[in-house]
Amino acid sequence: MNAAERPRIVVLTPEVAARIAAGEVIERPASVVKELVENSLDAGASHIEVEIGGGGVDRIRVRDDGHGVPPEQVADAFERHATSKLRSEHDLFTVRTLGFRGEALASIAAAADVDFTSRTAGADAAAVARVRDGRLERLGSAAAAPGTTVDARDLFAALPARRRFLHSARAEVRAVTDVLSALALAYPEVAFRLVADGRVALATPGTGDPRDALAAVHGADTAANLVAVTAARADAETGASVEVAGLAGPPSLHRGSRAYLHLVANGRTIGSRTLAYAIEQAYAGLIPAGRHPVALVRITVPPDQVDVNVHPTKAEVRFRHERLVFAAVADAVRAALAGSGVPLAPLPLGAMPSALGSDAFVREAPLDGHRVISGARAASMIAPAHLTDPAGGAVAEGAAPVLAGSARDEPTQGGLTIGDRLPLLRALGQVDLAYLVAEAPDGLYLVDQHAAHERVLYEELLAARRSGRAASQPLLGAVVTPLSASQAALAIAEAEALADLGWTIEPTDGAAVILRAVPAALAGRDAPGALRDHLDRMDAEERLTGPDRAAASLACRAAVMAGDRLDAEQQRALLRQLEACETPHTCPHGRPTMLHLSRAALDRSFGRR
Ligand code: ADP
Ligand code: MG
Asked: Helix, strand or coil for residue 4?
C-alpha cells in the first residue's frame, strides 16, 4: 500500500466511539440484564424483577425497590464514566459495590432505546427519562413506587452486525437465566423474579438463607442434602486473610456438568478454573471421573486484597493471595464433607457409584461387586434399535446388516473411498471392564466399549432422525420434572432437537418442565433423572452444536460405561454394531473408539521381520 492509499488516522466521532465502547460491555441481552441487576443490588434493592421479551432483544425491563436516583442526577447517570460509586483511583482498591466504572447505563443507551424511571424514598414523584441514541431526549416526572425501572428496547437495532451474532431468542433466555441464577445465589437476601416471554423462569424467596436460593435455582431435591461449608484463614506475616462460607453437596449428588459450581468473591459472581479445581479436588476419588459436584462457595477477603478491575465484564477477579484462597476453599469443602460423615477414603473401583446415578437397569453383581448390564441396555446391545420391531421384540440375528469387507478392498461410492469400514471382528474378551479385545484378518483390535457404544447409538439416533421416526416411549402420565432453572431454559431452547430424539417436553413455570415421552434408548429408566443427565451432558458438550449435540449427549447418556461387565454375547453384539457404523473409528466427539495393531506391526515388534 503506498502512502496515498493509506487511510488517514482520524479521531472517531463520539457516537461511533460510544458504539464501540458499548460493544465491550454489552455483548448480548444477558450482559444488559447483568449490568442492570447489579445496579439494583448496589442500590440496596430487596426485590428485583426482570422481564424479557423476544429473548431480551425486543425488550428488557428491570424493576427494583432500591434507593433510586434523584431527578437532578438522572442525566448524569447516562454519561460515560459517570458513577456515584467511585471518586478517586485509590477507591478502586476498596470498592464494595458491583459497579464502579460508570459505563453500563451509557453503553446500554448506546445499544438500545431506554426509558428510565426512578424515585427516591423522599421524593413525591418519580423522574422519567427518555434516552434515544445515547442522548437524553426528555426528562419529566410521573407517579411511581420508590425504586428504579429501566426499560430497554430493540437491543442492537443500530448494531446489525452484533445482532446477527446473537443466538436464538430461547438461547438468550437461557443465558439470562444463568446470569440471574448466579446473582440470586450470591444474594439470597434479595427476592429475584425472572419472567421470560411470559414464563416465570426463576423466582427466589429472598429469605437470606442460601439454601432457599439454591432450591429455587437448582431444585429442592438438590438443595435438600447440602452441607454447610465454612472456614477462615489468615497469615499474620503478610496480613492476608480470607473467609469461606457456603454449601456443598454430598458426593452422591454428582452432576454431568460444572454448571452446579458457583463461586462468589466479595459479592461478585465469578468464574475461576483454579477455584473450581480447588472444590473438585475435595471430591477427588469420591465421585466418578467426568462428573462434577454441586457447591456454592462464597469467598470474602479484605477489599484491598482483590483486584476487581481485571476483566471487561468483571467475570473474573484477581486475588492478591491466591494460594491462601485456594487452600482455604479446598480445606473448607473437604472439612465439610468429613464433618457430614461421608466416607472420604477413595472408593474401590467396583464400589464406585454408577456414573448413571439412579439407573435402575444397572445392578450390583453379588459376587465381585462389578456391575452387570441387564434390561433395556443389554437388549439394545444384543439387537440394535433399527433391528427391533416396535413391539420391542428382537429380530432374528440373521437379519443383521451386511458387513463390509476388509479395510483395504473397500468399494467406492460417488467417487469417494469408504475406507472407514471395519473388517469382521471376533471378540476375544474384555480388559479391565473397559476395553474389548478383538481379532480380525488384518490383526488385533482394542476397542473402547463406551466410545464404541456411543458411536453405535449416535448413528442410530441420526438415522432415526433422518427417517423422522424417533424411537419414543410415552410415559404413563405426564411427569412434572424438577430441573434447575438453567436446565429448564435449555430444555425449552432445544425442544426441537430433543423432540427429534424422542423426548416430549412442555414448558411450565419455574424450574421444571412437563415430560410426556422419553427416547426409546432410555425406556424403563428413571425418566426425570435421565432428562437431567441428558441436559447436563448437552451443556458440557463443547465440540458439537445444534441437533448433533443433543444426539451425541443422548448417546453418551445411554451407552455402556467403563466398569460395565459385558458377557461374550454382548461383546459380539457391540462389535457387530460397530462394524455396521459409517464412521466406526471415532466416537461422536472425535475421540478414537479403537486401536489397531496390524499383523505386520506385531511381526515387526517381535523382530520377525
Ligand atoms: P456504575 O454502576 O458503574 O456506577 P452505571 O452506568 O451502571 O455505572 O450507573 C451509573 C449510576 O447511575 C450509578 O453510579 C448509580 O448512581 C445510578 N444508578 C443506576 N442504576 C440505578 C438503580 N437501579 N438504582 C439507583 N441508582 C442507579
Ligand atoms: Mg452499574
From this structure: coil
Q: How many CA atoms lie within 13 A of 469 on its CB side?
A: 7
Q: Which of the listed residues 25, 33, 39 should we mutate to test ligand 1's pocket, taking the one with most ligand atoms within 8 A of CB?
A: 39
Phi-psi region of 68 (alpha: psi -120 to 50; beta: other; left: phi over 0): left
Answer yes or no: is the C-beta of 113 below 6 A from any ligand 1 atom.
Answer: no
Q: Do you know the residue count of the chain?
A: 609
Residues of the chain with CATH 3.30.1540.20: 369-609
Taking alpha carbons only, the member of 406, 439, 458 closest to residue 582 is: 458
Atom of ligand 1 nearest to the CA of 104: 6
pLDDT by 10-residue block (mean), the chain, 609 residues: 77 79 82 96 97 96 97 92 82 81 90 96 94 93 96 89 82 94 97 96 97 94 90 91 94 88 94 91 86 94 87 84 91 88 47 29 30 46 38 32 31 36 88 93 92 91 80 88 94 90 91 92 83 88 75 87 90 92 87 90 88
- The pairing of beta strand 47-53 with beta strand 191-196: parallel
Q: Where in the chain are all domains bearing CATH 3.30.230.10?
A: 225-339
Torsion of CA 501, 506, 509, 511, to 10 degrees: -20
Is 386 buried (19+), middle (13-18) or exposed (0-12) by CB count in 10 A?
middle
Query: How high is the pLDDT of residue 2?
Result: 67
Q: What pLDDT score was predicted for residue 344? A: 52
The CATH 3.30.565.10 domain(s) of the chain lie at 14-203
Pocket lining: 99 vs ligand 1, CB cutoff 6 Å:
yes
The reply to whether ligand 1 has any atom less than 6 angstroms from the CB of 117 is no
| The C-alpha cell that represents 594 in the structure block | 479403537
The CA-based angle 231-236-241, given to 5 degrees, is 35
Give CA–CA dist 540/290, Å, rounded: 10
Other Cβ atoms within 10 Å of 81 Cβ, number: 10
Question: What is the architecture of the domain spanning 225-339?
Answer: 2-Layer Sandwich (3.30)
Q: Which residue has the cell 464433607?
A: 337
Q: Contact, 69 vs 121, CB < 8 A?
A: no
Q: Coil, strand, or helix at residue 600?
A: helix
Count of other CB atoms within 10 angstroms of residue 301: 21
Query: Any idea which architecture 369-609 has in CATH?
Result: 2-Layer Sandwich (3.30)
Q: Under a CB-based contact definition with an 8 Å cutoff, are residues 572 and 397 in contact?
A: no
Distance of CA 442 to the CA centre of its chain: 43
Partners of 295 in the beta sheet? 248, 261
Please tell me the distance between residue 39's alpha carbon and the centre of ligand 1 in angstroms: 5
Q: C-alpha grid cell for residue 476?
A: 404413563
CATH number of the domain located at residue range(s) 14-203 in this protein: 3.30.565.10
Contact 217, 184 (CB under 8 A): yes
Q: Whose CA is nearest to atom 14 of ligand 1?
A: 83
The distance from CA 395 to its chain's CA centroid, rounded to whole angstroms, is 39
Q: Are 524 and 564 in contact (CB under 8 A)?
A: no
CA distances from 215 to 204, 256, 510 (A): 8, 18, 11
Alpha carbons 603 and 38: distance in angstroms, whole number = 68
Residue 393 contacts residue 585 (beta carbons within 8 Å) = no
- Spatial contact of 473 and 523, defined as CB atoms under 8 Å apart: yes
C-alpha cell belonging to residue 177:
437465566
The residues, any chain, with a CB within 8 Å of residue 376's CB and separated by 6 or more, are 361, 521, 522, 523, 524, 525
